[in-house]
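Q: Is it fine to ask for two folds in a single conversation?
A: Yes, each is treated on its own. Send the first.
Q: Here.
A: Result:
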Amino acid sequence: MKKASNNLFQLIKSLSSSEKRYFNLYATTHSKGEKNNYLLLFDAIQQQAEYDEEALKEQFKDKRFVKYFPRAKNQLYFNILDSLHAYHTDAAPKEVVKKLLHQSEILFERNMVADAIKLLEKAKKIAKAHDLYLLTHRALELERKFKGSKHQKNKGAYLLKISEEKEKCVAIIENIVAYEKIYDQLYQLQKSDAILSRVERQQAVKELMDEPIVKSETAALCFKAKILYYDINGMYYFMSGNVQKAYELNKRYLKLFEASPDKLELYPVKYLNLFNNHLIDCYCLRRHTELNEGLAKLRSFNMDPIFANVPNIDIKVFIRANKLELNTCVNMGNFKEGLTLIKPIARGLEQFEERIPDHMVMSFYGLIALVYYGNAMYEATLDVLNKLKEKEQKGLLEDISVFARLLQAVVYFDLEKEDELETLIPSIKRYIKYRKRNTDFVNAFLVQLENIIYAASEKDRVNGLKNILQEVEAASKQEYLAFQNFKLIDWVNSKLQNKTYQELVQKRFKEKALSV
């Protein structure tokens, strides 16, 4: 039986509170005969935690529209899209400016020149405030046309002033385009490992970063260009692995926004992503006080009017804040603290299940499994790993799928489930061979694990564990990523030193913190 589509459910769940209020007004105004049915169905779907079409049909079994339910769903879906178009068209500055420009032309054609110029001035003011420089240029063209039609003493001076404004506007547009071109080229280089050699890539990146406009923020002629300046340099530091420089840059970037609240309202998604990048920098640099303060601020964005119209702001905040907090607990070895986060995260994953991409759910499962493992809750770890493997699809975070199998092998080893481990290891080898993932290092680890299982003496067992440490030292950073955030070195040493995994993760973290 074909599974009922949940696209209507996903669309309704993605609406902000203001978009929902607007739809209610829109549906009342635009749907005459069936308006109550549309709103009833809308409200019923909105109240569902997960989509259940049979429950809806049962709820509305006395309503005529149940007989043609797929059509009713389809009509509601497109009514919501129409309301979103109307809502954002009315509110979007770009659409407001375009409307004003068109209205000013209509007035000019009716020889109402003074009124046309008034609307034009209003359009120009909005366009400049919102970095709409193409529309600003169009407004200046119309202004030249309108004022050029009037007979007045200072006509030449007016027209010259407009021409100078147009010239400045063109310079700003060209400045933005120049930054965009560098950004696009740098992004292409970031993804070109398979095409260019390392030397060629480094040379191409160097040439781009030697461009004068990326050397100094003062070369950016408007706020939009400044955003591109910071994005370019941020991407460069990310490619270079220079977290400290990225942190310093993003701090300046945040100050740029915070010094211009009107721009923060103009680019809320950009600010949200920037703030998240800053928190990641804090996490990588072990600036935990700043990170914790930032996480509290990030969680407050849900209630901030600036972000009210950001689609799925609740999900965006949920994912960013909880992933960072879980990562921090796992990295520091604060597994008991991590345990307190699991229940609220599980509730959130259930609440947002239909709207969170599978790869994000898999990432959460991976981190939750590590928290359970750090607390020596091995059966709970296996349960989560099984959920993770149920979610996996070809091409979807295959590295996390490899990690799930490797951690499963580690748990079986800890539980001394030799029979299960003996079956699992060949299965993992086939899996990574088929998908060509981290083959050499992972295979070497699995071979050593097999050797330890079949070790004839304690000495052979210890040698097998030491061999794993040697394999880790020989592995590249990319190969070691197969274990995600699992500290393989600390796990091996926990066996050699007869200590808990948690103790050694915490110890290593403190030692690194002291050395920074």
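Q: Second one now.
A: Result:
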Amino acid sequence: MPRQIRPTTVHPLALRELEVLRVVDVTPGMRRVTLTGAQLGAFTAPDGARIAPFRSTGFDDDVRVFYPHPGETEPVLPVFKDGGVAFPRDQKVLQRVYTVRRYDEAAQELDLDFVRHGVGIATTWAYRATPGERIHLTNPPASLGIPADAEWLLVAGDDTALPAIARLLEELPADARGIVLIEVAEAAHRQALAERPGVDVRWLVRDGAQRGGADDGGAAPHGALLLEAVRGLELPAGTPFAWLAGEQSAVRDLRRLLVEQHGIDKTRIEFTGYWKHGEVVTVEGDAALVDTSKTEDAWHRFHEQIEVLPGIAIRSAVDLGLAEQLSRGVTTAPALAEALGLDAGAAAKLLRYLEAISIVVRPGGGADYALSETGVYLAEEWVQHYLRGDGGWAQLQRGFLGLSESVRTGRASYASVGGAPFEELRLDPGFEARHLEAMNEWASWLAAPVAESAAFEGLHELAIHSDAAGAHAAALVARHPALRVRIVALPAQAAWLRADLPATIPDAAQRERVEIVEQSITEPIETEAVLIVQRLDRHPDADAAYVLRRAAASAGRVVLVEDAYDPEAEDEHAAEHDLLALTVHGSGNRTAAELESVIAASGLSVASAEPVGWGMTLPVLAPGAERSK
């Protein structure tokens, strides 16, 4: 998936309770709700944690808002602890994500703009909200800036993107250059926006453009005007940055158009599906209130849980290219078979099954297929990257096929299903490249807060052991100008890192402070400190203790980043990671107590520890140290 080129500031997650201060209609199609409250500032959470003030520095920052179910007065809320979040298993959390239109820290005011289109949980709340009403939300998980090397901007979005676009225009420098395309339902929905001499803002109005097969009373279909406008653009010279937001399918097609027709590199495009078309069931007697109740019984849930084929069939649809071709308008079984070189009869069988599980539909009941409301996700590049059989994630998850063997023996079973132990397969450069690409996908979200830790203050030399070593090195050398970093890697990983490092650390001066050393994690290396990131979970306890002991022998100070498993959280994904580590490495995702036992067995002690967000704590280990208070 595309590399994150926007400068990123990660914020600790926190739940805040605010109240409605005022409600105004910006246009007939947009309502602004202004929120306020002491919890926009620093406060102490119920668990005693000290919460930092609300921060929002990015034009497209978003907050997650929580709503009560119909007939209820209080929302079902997740639990926030140590920078992480856990959702209740037996109750559905009703939430929606909205852009921060304005945040005034001095006045303690937060503006959220709500588009009035159709029926929705958030829309109905906004159009019924009154001053004094309480609401719960999280702060933005991160703020992203404009890439420093962007010479001009292309911004395109529908009504739902207007809050972000309006804020962007207010915050752009006076000499900014760019093209902004905004599609709205009707002329009355246009807003007064900040003007920049070098930025061309164009409004596209659906009700003023008749198109066949429309979805707005004969007006242009949603997103059609944006596609038409982008298709006809003459783009400026220089390095671009494109930002696209709106209806999911329209945004996907806009991005495809920029890449395939205009030749813009995928890494220069930020795209977000704010919403997607779908049917809404309303509460009987109140057509503006969404019915969120679920009628699944225990048998239905059990039946879904034991199904094997859906996941296999969905992955086959991605591997064969069916989902991609359907999104491009190839709609019949014979046409798909011809385009993809498939057996026509077999392709028809797979399509019939995909229709049975609601991944594809036949809108007219004929021979033409289309991706369903759920199936459209399969046309998203990041989903394809995750599901493709030859990708790093899929190959890692093959370990699950040996789960029974691992549970019987307590040892890794990957060799029995993968043909060789996982670490042996990693010696193959092709396999290693796919694995490291998978591991580095979201690394920057952890790397940034880790680099901010006080554990690295005053250091001049640091060695890193991590599958995402490049991302961590980039964050560290950017944050600490005097720091030199040695990435310790085996040859296959080292080769991939050398090829990837110029893109991960584009600043040549910073890159010169990063050295790649080919050796194993247990070999000595002279340095002031060693950073080990999520590597202990691939070693059994005795081996993990040995790794820590050897690292301390090289440096004395060991900085550790491990995702401890919280049995009380009932987190499905954490439990999944625990089983995956068992099948692949014969280890597991240790609890905090289990990790403490490994540290004790290594002869080290925790000198200090601090939370770094996402539910993780960063301990600094040293021989015979006493933990600082």
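Q: Anything structural to flag on that second result?
A: Two points. Residues 210-217 have pLDDT under 50 and may be disordered. The first strand starts at residue 8 and ends at 10.
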